[in-house]
């Protein structure tokens, strides 16, 4: 099998059931999800093994689900298709968010990306995930999409935020507070 096909040399690419321009909103959406997946891989490779086996497993599962998400957005005609992203995946993300957040100290101010290398990489994942979500919103304005894919990305960015804070907490490193921020969050009850 050849890696190169030459079929995209004139600015078109294949989607499931058709071809579109390489700058089409659909390609931007699943391409940004692919970019996110690369950053998730980088974050996984930064994790110290002994304290982060659970997070490593969850991030690896997320990588597979990001492929599912991209696939769900790659149909030329998405109506009536069998989708891979499900509401159960979103619910499970919420459970993980709650679990990791329970390890984190209270937050009262906005925080800056930083602390440990792993936390910094997870914040990169968060921001790329938000961009992917924006690309999916743009796509949804142009054609029908699988709504659960958009909801999954929305929840996933929250997961990355909480996971970044957990990475700092487990390493005994404080989050970097935005010093010009007033107290904007309530303490956990």
From TrEMBL:
Q: Does the keyword Nuclease apply?
A: no
Q: Please report the name of this protein according to its UniProt entry.
A: Corrinoid adenosyltransferase
Into which family does the record put it?
Belongs to the Cob(I)alamin adenosyltransferase family.
Q: Transit peptide among the record's keywords?
A: no
Instruction: State the EC number(s).
Output: 2.5.1.17
Residue stretches making up the Cobalamin adenosyltransferase-like domain: 3-167
- Catalytic reaction(s) noted: 2 cob(II)yrinate a,c diamide + reduced [electron-transfer flavoprotein] + 2 ATP = 2 adenosylcob(III)yrinate a,c-diamide + 2 triphosphate + oxidized [electron-transfer flavoprotein] + 3 H(+); 2 cob(II)alamin + reduced [electron-transfer flavoprotein] + 2 ATP = 2 adenosylcob(III)alamin + 2 triphosphate + oxidized [electron-transfer flavoprotein] + 3 H(+)
| Pathway annotation from the record | Cofactor biosynthesis; adenosylcobalamin biosynthesis; adenosylcobalamin from cob(II)yrinate a,c-diamide: step 2/7
Assigned keywords, A-Z: ATP-binding, Cobalamin biosynthesis, Nucleotide-binding, Transferase
Gene Ontology MF term list: corrinoid adenosyltransferase activity
What positions belong to coiled-coil segments? none
């Amino acid at each position: 099998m050849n890696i190169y096909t030459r079929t995209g040399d004139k600015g078109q690419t294949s989607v499931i059931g058709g071809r579109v321009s390489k700058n089409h909103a659909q390609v931007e959406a699943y391409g940004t999800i692919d970019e996110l997946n690369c950053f998730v891989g980088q974050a996984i490779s930064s994790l110290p093994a002994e304290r982060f086996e659970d997070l490593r497993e969850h991030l690896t599962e997320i990588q597979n689900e990001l492929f599912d998400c991209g696939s769900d957005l790659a149909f030329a005609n998405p109506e009536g298709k069998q989708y891979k992203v499900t509401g159960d995946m979103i619910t499970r993300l919420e459970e993980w968010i709650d679990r990791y957040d329970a390890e984190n100290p209270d937050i009262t101010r906005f925080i800056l990306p930083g602390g440990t290398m792993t936390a910094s990489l997870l914040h990169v994942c968060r921001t790329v995930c938000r961009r992917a979500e924006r690309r999916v919103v743009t796509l949804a304005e142009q054609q029908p999409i699988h709504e659960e894919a958009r909801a999954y990305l929305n929840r996933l960015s929250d997961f990355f935020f909480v996971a970044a804070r957990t990475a700092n907490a487990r390493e005994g490193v404080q989050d970097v507070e935005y010093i010009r921020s007033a107290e904007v969050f309530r303490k956990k009850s």
